[in-house]
Amino acid sequence: MVNQATIKLIDTFTSKIPLVRICKYLNISRSTYYYHKTHAAHFNLSQIEQEIQQLCIKTKFLYGYRKIYALINKHLKCSVSKVQRIMAKYNWWCRIKRKRSHRPGNPFKQFDNIINRDWNISLPNRKLTTDITYIPCGNKMLYLSTIMDSFNSEIIAHKISNHPNTQLALDTLNQLGYLSGAIIHSDQGSTYT
């Protein structure tokens, strides 16, 4: 491939030396010279390289050559392989964003399992269990918080909300009032802890 420096060199010497002789010395045909001269914008790699560099910096090197090609091809015509070669030449490969795995442990308070799978009870309102159920409703979700008495598996409090937050759990608990000696069991999710 003839670069633009060669074309400029030929242009400077054509006033003194015939074009046929210059092409013969450089071992290129005249048609190749004329082709590269008329299609100089097509072979201007520096412009494509600058565009690729700007896109890589703008996207913080998170895009690969296919995505960069898709962005560059909107206003500057080039091939996928050319973008890939240029990115390889300057080592502008996409850099993988490392996932953070910092987990310091459970930030909420954990409670001991007092019930320990012993649901047998002879009096009502002593061992209670609670959970939130997700209910699909059209194109959105509703959340049902319930409290069940393990004495007779009766739902003694319930509340429906648009969000599975702590307020939903508190509203369900407030329906019970004060129960002396009752144990409430949950899955210790963030909503309850």
Automatic annotation (TrEMBL):
SUPFAM superfamilies: Ribonuclease H-like. NCBIfam families: transpos_IS3. Involved in the transposition of the insertion sequence. InterPro entries: HTH-like_dom (IPR025948), Integrase_cat-core (IPR001584), RNaseH-like_sf (IPR012337), RNaseH_sf (IPR036397), Transpos_IS3 (IPR048020), Transposase_IS3/IS150/IS904 (IPR050900). Residues 120-193 form the Integrase catalytic domain. Pfam families: HTH_21, rve. This is IS3 family transposase.
